[in-house]
Write a structure and sequence with these properties.
The protein is mainly β and 484 residues long. It has one domain (2-483): Porin (Beta Barrel), CATH 2.40.160. Helix content is 7%, strand content 44%. The protein has helices at residues 2-17, 28-31, 189-194, 364-369, and strands at 50-51, 54-66, 88-99, 109-119, 140-152, 160-169, 198-207, 212-219, 238-246, 252-261, 266-267, 270-275, 278-282, 291-301, 306-317, 322-334, 339-350, 357-358, 376-377, 405-416, 428-441, 447-448, 454-455, 460-462, 468-470, 472-483. A 16-stranded antiparallel beta barrel has the order 2-3-4-5-6-7-8-9-10-14-15-16-17-20-21-26. The chain is globular, with a radius of gyration of 22 Å. The relative contact order is 0.17.
């Protein structure tokens, strides 16, 4: 109860600061013009050059997260894209060419989007078998989006339908892959562990009325490419469905989406099942167990300076018998054209210790998706180190029971756009400093470490023995985005 009260307090603090204003900054631009599409607190990109209706944009993002604990494994646990402690890196060098569709047009319209990326973020955004094993370096190439869009104005009588076909970033959730669509450098637990990142398939947004959108689609799953074994880690499709409510009162939007489908891998002709949190080869068919993801984002722009948003998330993996749920609240105040001040408060409960993890090596995330390795869970060492029976004193029927915990984080930051002389292509600079405090609640004590010693359970600050020693993690981070 104590951790729920403190988590609620953190969310209330953010609510007092106020914020944001979008249902999803990334993909919804082409999907539903009734829904706000640009994070009000995010760095506002300069006008993009356009040639024959095709808009070109790009940016370079680089930054660093200072962790005063200096963990021995150099990992900021609980994060993916900003997981390297006390090191500087280029997260994204991204180029985009796109032609937006007009969702309000009375005529048929078409568009497309091509987006590529190089940098450390690509470790986590690959589609299967699309450049994912080109290099062992933390700097990798990735196709973020490659899709076509169509607008059909004659559906639903006075309504219309927008269709996206190809490879695209997920419309689920509040934060996005593209750094220019986010307020903060670090990401929420929900973005890292509670939603997909990308899909391959068909996605439709049906504008039934000016207020109501119905979403429906089918895809190959989380981060999966074409529908065959070489480009997917199982053999089944997934569905995406949900609704959007636009302006029931001015400047209020609600987007509720669900993604349901099998996501666990076959391995060497068999499938992976989880026993005591450890993946083992069994005859079990992963196509018969689904991962359910439910997410709702509500945004409200109070005025030109203040706006608020919150996200509620639930995820369940039926094969691992694991669930997690979270809530995040965002708030920002635009002081002037150069300065915006923001805050984020979040609580994320990992009920069986299955979802929140770290991937120390550059390809660990990719191989974990294929079931070929075990990620590092809370506590500082892989669950496979426990052996086949699980650690002493822990339940043996659910995945990662000893690593279950509630994670809270409070992030306070600013966005500064310094005045620059006129530059070619409208180049601009945004600098984003932030302070972040993470806390882990309720981890089970008396774990057995890889060296055989009994240790208390913590999530952060791994020592020389490979064991986490603290419940708190403090980060001082800053990044810069230079783009056109």
């Amino acid at each position: 109860m104590k951790h729920l009260l403190l988590g609620t307090t953190a969310l209330a603090l953010v609510g007092a600061l106020a914020s944001f204003g979008t249902a999803r900054a990334d993909d919804q631009t082409a999907q539903a013009t009734q829904t706000p599409t640009q994070d009000q607190a995010a760095p506002t990109p300069p006008p993009h050059p356009t040639v024959n209706g095709v808009m070109f944009s790009g940016h370079i993002e680089a930054g660093s997260s200072f962790n005063p604990d200096g963990p021995n494994n150099n990992i900021n646990f609980g994060q993916l894209f900003t997981d390297r402690a006390n090191s500087f890196g280029m997260n994204q060098a991204m180029l985009t060419a796109e032609k937006d569709i007009d969702s309000t047009s009375a005529n048929w319209d078409w568009g497309f989007k091509i987006q590529g990326m190089y940098g450390t973020d690509a470790r986590y955004t690959h589609f299967f078998n699309e450049g994912d094993f080109w290099t062992h370096s933390p700097y990798q190439w990735d196709i973020v989006e490659l899709n076509g869009d169509m607008h059909f104005p004659w559906m639903f009588g006075g309504g219309s339908t927008d269709v996206k076909v190809g490879q695209y970033s997920t419309p689920i959730g509040y934060e996005v892959i593209d750094a220019t669509g986010n307020t903060f450098y670090t990401h929420s637990y929900i973005f890292n562990f509670g939603i997909p990142l990308k899909h391959t398939g068909i996605q439709t947004v049906n504008h039934v009325t000016d207020m109501l959108d119905i979403w429906a689609g089918v895809d190959t799953g989380v981060n999966a490419s074409w529908p065959d074994r070489r480009y997917d880690n199982n053999g089944s499709l997934a569905i995406l469905t949900g609704f959007g409510i636009n302006n029931p009162i001015p400047n209020l939007t609600i987007l509720g989406l669900a993604h349901i489908g099998p996501e666990n891998p076959y391995i060497q002709g068999q499938s992976q099942k989880f026993v005591n949190g450890v993946g083992v080869l069994t005859p079990y068919d992963p196509n018969h167990a689904v991962r359910q993801i439910y997410d709702m984002v509500t945004t409200y722009k109070i005025n030109d300076s203040w706006s608020v948003a919150n996200e509620i998330n639930f995820i369940r993996d039926d094969l691992a018998h694991a669930t997690a749920e979270g809530a995040a609240l965002y708030g920002s105040y635009a002081y002037d054209d150069q300065w915006t001040f923001s805050a984020r408060g979040e609580v994320f409960r990992d009920d069986q210790g299955f979802f929140v993890a770290a991937f120390p090596a550059s390809q660990d995330f990719l191989t974990a998706e294929r079931g070929l390795n075990q990620p590092v869970r809370g506590g500082g060492f892989p669950l496979s180190a426990y052996g086949a029976t699980g650690p002493s004193g822990c339940a043996t029927t659910q995945a990662g029971t000893c690593n279950k915990a509630t994670y809270s984080e409070l992030t306070i930051g600013a966005s500064y756009k310094p005045p620059l002389p006129p530059l070619p292509l409208g180049l601009g600079l945004t600098i984003r400093p932030e302070f972040r405090w993470d806390h882990a609640w309720g981890m089970i004590p008396n774990l057995i470490a890889p060296n055989g010693q009994r240790v208390a359970a913590h999530a952060f600050d791994v020592n020389g023995s490979g064991v986490a020693t603290k419940d708190d993690q403090f980060l001082f981070s800053v990044d810069a985005i230079f783009g056109f």
